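chain below, 110 aa
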Amino acid sequence: MTIEQENIVDLISINNEENYLTLIISDHLEWDETGEKLLILQNKINTYLAYIESDEIVEKYPESKYLTIIIRVVSLEEPNEEGRKFLKLVAPVIMDAGFKFEHVVSNENS
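prediction:
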């Protein structure tokens, strides 16, 4: 699964010991100047929020009802200026919805 498959949750990780469930967005795209990636990322995040808020996640993972939910974007590259602005705007919106947000860069060549 990838960020381009906007209507699919890429990966779910559950850590029962630390009481959290992480929904991971796998981002392999370059940060472009046109904003196309930002639109794709926004749509993907909206899919994740809908998945959580519709309780579909609870249907598939009943224990999620009792866990802290984190939406994590894992990118291969550092975001450009527009990407950083977008991520700063997204984080409080997700937190206001009652969830945590993380963005990490995981360069597979490291």
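The chain has one domain: 11-105. Residues 36-53 form the longest helix (18 residues).
thats it, cya
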